[in-house]
Write a structure and sequence with these properties.
183 residues; alpha/beta; Rossmann fold; DNA polymerase, domain 1; four-stranded mixed beta sheet; 9 helices; 4 strands
Length: 183
């Protein structure tokens, strides 16, 4: 472990190869003050955190009252707007324990550094293709079914279908994305 100045976040771990986890730590009071106080720097901290680290994370210490509109609004913005997860801990000791466990499991020189994606393991080749197509943003079960019924999946997976051909089945944005993925 090494102690040094970092541009954003309070704690950083990981590796250059796997990407770094950057953690911003706030107590409930710090969180409220950094959004409403004189300095109002929380949103800038999030921007730098997200731009700097592969995995940004916010740890919030203290009891979260979701009836408090300000706090719940901040957290919803964090999750839904910024797409940055947060962990809620009871106190500084809980925070230290959580960080220790994360580092022990995903820190520097650990196998792969990140947990495997949580996906259902399909058995049949048709179900596997159906699941693979849904990994593309904008494609859910209905679109995947429609797509696989309307096109030759071998041509799709070999990158032989262009956006124009795919537009007969899906919208332009999804067609462009599929062409880019399979080219």
């Amino acid at each position: 472990m090494e102690k040094k100045y970092i541009d954003s976040g309070d704690i950083v771990f990981g590796s250059e190869e796997e990407g770094y986890v950057g953690i911003e730590r706030k107590t409930i009071m710090d969180l409220v003050n950094s959004v409403t106080g004189k300095n109002r720097h929380f949103w800038e901290q999030l921007k730098v955190l997200k731009d700097t680290y592969k995995t940004p994370l916010v740890i919030i210490e203290g009891r979260i009252d979701f009836k408090d509109k300000l706090i719940s609004g901040i957290l919803f913005s964090l999750l839904l707007g910024w797409k940055i997860p947060y962990i809620n801990t009871y106190n500084v000791y809980d925070t230290a324990e959580a960080i220790s466990r994360m580092f022990t499991r995903y820190g520097e020189n650990k196998a792969k550094g990140y947990p495997p994606a949580a996906v259902k393991k399909e058995v049949s080749p048709a179900k596997i293709r159906w699941s693979m197509i849904q990994c593309c943003r904008g494609i859910g079960p209905a679109t995947a079914t429609k797509l696989l019924k309307s096109i030759n999946y071998k041509e799709l997976f070999r990158g032989e279908l262009n956006s124009k051909q795919l537009c007969k089945v899906v919208n332009k944005k999804i067609a462009d994305r599929l062409e880019e993925v399979f080219k």
